[in-house]
């Protein structure tokens, strides 16, 4: 099993993640998202009212896959759980993600009335596929 340190470069690059959560009826919802890394915790930021955070709150677990945008044969799969939820710093967090993903100092898609939230995820299981050299 891999560790966060094994995939830190993959997580720090502007690669998208697909997060999978369970709906109330047991089916799976998969959503592409931006994410950040702080220490060993993964930060996921979203606007309230979307389906995946509702699902995440319901059962507290998440699965993520991250593909290397420069070499799609390298990827990581992470299964984890929510360790905290934060509204207070969520607008600043999405601005940091806009810097990472778009090179902008401020998230350009703020909507009036949006309430943002940041979830911190601890990884319980990590798989890292590294393609063979050559």
List keywords for this structure.
134 residues, alpha+beta, 7-stranded antiparallel β-sheet, 7 strands, globular
Give structural notes.
The protein has 134 residues and is α+β, with helices and mostly antiparallel strands. The protein is 23% helix and 41% strand. β1 (17-22) and β2 form a beta hairpin. The mean pLDDT is 96.
Q: How many strand segments?
A: 7
Count every helix, treating DSSP H or I runs of 4 or more residues as helices. 3
First-residue to last-residue Cα separation? 24 Å
Q: List SSEs in N-to-C order.
A: HEEEEHEEHE
Helix content: 10-25%
Sum up the overall morphology in one term: globular
Average pLDDT confidence is 96
Q: Taking strands numbered 1, 2, ... along the chain, how are they ordered across the largest sheet?
A: 2-1-5-6-7-4-3
